[in-house]
Design brief:
With about 70 residues, the protein is α+β, with helices and mostly antiparallel strands. It has 1 helix and 3 strands.
Length: about 70
């Protein structure tokens, strides 16, 4: 059994050095992957100064509900 977009209950994206350009790139990539129905669930985008490892630009936290 695999999980899919319909199984996501909450989706949080953390972005280092957030900018309008970063926002457009992330949303564009999400729509390309998930389709025009993105976001399919509760979604939050959080701009942060840095992530846990130098050089990382994005981190995704997803909570899924599976039967």
């Amino acid at each position: 059994m695999g999980a899919g977009l319909v199984d996501i209950a909450k989706f949080t994206i953390y972005v280092a050095d957030y900018s309008e350009h970063a926002f457009e790139a992330i949303v564009g990539a999400a729509i390309e992957e998930a389709g025009e129905d993105y976001p399919v669930t509760a979604s939050t985008l959080v701009g942060v100064a840095a992530l846990w490892q130098p050089g990382l630009l994005i981190e995704i936290d997803a909570t899924l509900v599976l039967d």
